[in-house]
Amino acid sequence: MQTVLYPLSVLYRFILAFGIGYAGSYLLSVALIDVFYPYLAKAESIYLAAFIALFFYIVFVIISFCVHSLKKLSIISLILMIALFLFSKFIG
After folding, report:
1. CB–CB of 53/25 below 8 Å?
2. Is the pTM of this model over 0.90?
3. pLDDT at residue 1 tops 80
4. Where are the domains of the chain?
């Protein structure tokens, strides 16, 4: 049973790290573009939002591989995605 469970948990961690990280960086960049647009030019707001979203993605992937518990990682990822989704909907 352990030989089947371990590869599935690794696959789940990869999907959470890279898939949810990508979706979260997308939501963050969309929200940050709306925040920066009134204060900066359009190109600068897009560039700054993409740069911050890239840092978010890198940090999220690193942290997702540092957290040992898959349950904690799932809860943290779910809360973060809900927060970023609500942030992008209320701002945009």
Report:
1. yes
2. no
3. no
4. 2-91
